[in-house]
């Protein structure tokens, strides 16, 4: 039976494997294990920035979700950005994603957050329905991005 816990530095190679699956599915991102490893390490080593939860079956990480923390001036409180939620394809459809998302929601609330915001690919209707089943609603806000050259 899979369990959820916070990620450790030892999980980074398996988390990078999951991010490769995720970033292969998403149009806006490309897998790069070195960059993903660097980002994961920064979050794990600085829990005030965010937290990474892993869903594991024994020593195998089968899913992950990343929560980043910031302050909303609109709400005057701490809020979370849900990033990088992925469940290995072999484990989808059996409730693993729901287990992971419910733990992420509980962690955000316990961390004093009053809102969680996430981005999903517009064309990924199954992901949008999944989040809506868990209480998320579509926003009228449109994401814009400015990338700086490396």
UniProtKB/TrEMBL annotation:
Q: What SUPFAM superfamilies does the database record attribute to this sequence? A: Acyl-CoA N-acyltransferases (Nat)
List, alphabetically, the PROSITE patterns matched.
GNAT (PS51186)
CDD domains referenced in this protein's UniProt entry, alphabetically = NAT_SF (cd04301)
Q: Which UniProt keywords apply?
A: Acyltransferase, Transferase
Q: Care to name a GO molecular-function term for this sequence?
A: acyltransferase activity, transferring groups other than amino-acyl groups
Looking at the keywords, is Acyltransferase present? yes
Q: N-acetyltransferase domain spans which residues?
A: 2-150
Question: Could you confirm whether the keyword Transferase appears in this record?
Answer: yes
| Protein name from the UniProt record | GNAT family N-acetyltransferase
């Amino acid at each position: 039976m899979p369990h959820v816990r916070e990620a450790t530095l030892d999980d980074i190679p398996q988390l990078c494997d999951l991010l490769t699956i995720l970033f292969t599915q998403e149009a806006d991102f490309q897998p790069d294990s070195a960059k993903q490893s660097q980002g994961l390490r920064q979050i794990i080593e600085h829990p005030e920035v965010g937290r990474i939860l892993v869903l594991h079956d024994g020593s195998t990480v089968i899913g992950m979700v990343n929560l980043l923390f910031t302050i909303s001036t609109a709400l005057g409180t701490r809020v979370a950005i849900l990033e990088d939620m992925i469940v290995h394809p072999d484990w989808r459809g059996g409730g693993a994603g729901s287990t992971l998302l419910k733990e992420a929601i509980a962690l955000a609330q316990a961390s004093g957050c009053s809102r969680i915001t996430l981005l999903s690919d517009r064309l990924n209707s199954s992901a949008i329905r999944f989040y809506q089943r868990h209480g998320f609603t579509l926003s009228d806000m449109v994401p814009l991005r400015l990338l700086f050259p490396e």
